[in-house]
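Quick note —
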Amino acid sequence: MQQFFRVQEYKVLIYRLLLVYLMYAFSRFLFFIYNYSFLEIDSVVEYLKLSYHGLAFDTAAIFYLNSLFVLLSMLPFVINTHKIYQKIIFYVYFTTNLIGMSFNFVDLIYYKFNYNRTTISEWDVVKNEDNRFEMFARFAVSYWHVFLLFILTTVVWIVLYKKVKISTKPYSKGVLSYVLTSVACFLLMITLMVGGIRGDFRKSTRPINLVDANRHTSKIQHADFILNTPFTIIRTFNKKTFKKVSYDLKKPEVDRLVQPLKAYPNTVKNKPNIVVFITESYGREYIGAFNDPTQIKDYVSYTPFLDSLATKSLIFNKAYANGRKSIHGMSSVLAGIPSFKDAFTSSPYANQDIESVVSILNSEGYDTSFFHGAPNGSMGFLGFSNILGFDNYYGKTEFNNDALFDGVWGIWDDPFFQFMKTTLDTKTTPFFSTIFTVTSHEPYIIPKEYEGVFPKGDVPMHQCVGYTDFAFKQFFEAAKKEPWFQNTIFIITADHSNQIRYSEYRKLMNRLAVPIMIYSPNGEFTGVKSELAQQIDIYPTIIDMVGYNKPFRSWGRSLVSEKPSKMDPFVVSFIGQNYMYSEGNIICIFDGVKAVGFYDDQ
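Predicted structure written out below.
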């Protein structure tokens, strides 16, 4: 009877699928251990509750990845129990499942940088890099413990898989009945898999998606614990996240909240040069001038030069990034376009004619240039800089000295800052220049000659912060000797934050905290402002400071305008699986369809 109904085969099939569930549960536990401080799961009961809700997302991912394995296991062939056939099934099972599981293990580390389960959009980070394999090898070396855990998990998984084997005894009779019962069981399994992939069996319900994880949470970061990375990659594959959506809002409310056309009637006699530093991973947490040590226990600053420069600058100590990655920062700062799920630079709209600070300053007779010490084309910056209309792009190729290449990302910050300075010396004023730095980035290395010069701090990033601060000091000491320096406004910000040391910056909003500092040698901009500011405000601020008084399009606001804006200061971003809008002390979390929570930031 067991042979006739293939009972032993189905038992083994169920056992093998249960092993996958077990491994997903284990990887979720590791995700919790590695990211405990960010997830804020406070009790065993809460852990178990969230894990239970995660089963629906695990089921969807497991059935997606194991569809071929299940098909081969249930086809009504009498050769199913043969050793060669079972070996084929073995390789199919582990090929698909280990690929999926590897993404879960990547997020043990990558989540600390991304604050989000990895999706297919992460391809934007590496698709423009020529050294993808070197980056992967370096990741393997830097985070060897994750790779070791993955290998050990794989070994245990294979051992458990082989513990239960299918009998190779051949079927001797009743072939027609064997086929009919096999087909019936196969159809039943297909029905169960369709329901598992959708999330339930109700016809009226759409298949579960990333935002559905928020239905079961009180803290939005818990959604990342509920989800698994194979699911988030599968669900975002070949999906367009830039969509036109209609909302039922009254026109007066829309007009109050959305005022894209700006004009600042500011007159400037001598148009200033503008230099913008977009500093890699340089979160607000690292710079002492932006932090109150009486509010953060045992606070230590790693930026002595920037702290001194801040005393002569206008700084915004509640400024935030509009995106989570380097490729988000360029469009936000220079074109005033925030990035959400995907970078604007990889959207279908990136190639269109874009009004930006570059295009406007080009029309005003500025010489415009973009500096990035990485190999030309890295991060897609070369392509997007051409779209924006920069007159010149200066990368590793133009620097032309590979002896100062860090071996990973680009030219060390200090020599590349000096390269920018000497290049600016040759420019006709007025000029507008942007530099995107590279050294303050994982794997957190600095030139050998500076080892031991800067404090190691509490996280690897701190030493890099000290080195880049030194690069700033060297740049400004050299630049102040030049005739163009006195009529130049310098803006220092960051693309996003990075390794977090203090609990204050583990708060959801503060994970996006970046500095915005405006320095003018003539002392025109000084003081500390505690109103909300964001990267997309930098573009209209520059337009205001250079005296451009024609209407232009921008989603942000000028941070230096004396004329009160009709718009209240706000910050918009995307973190976890949700949009976040902050105004005053209130943070609104929005899942793309409805508001799912309101929080007081105090």
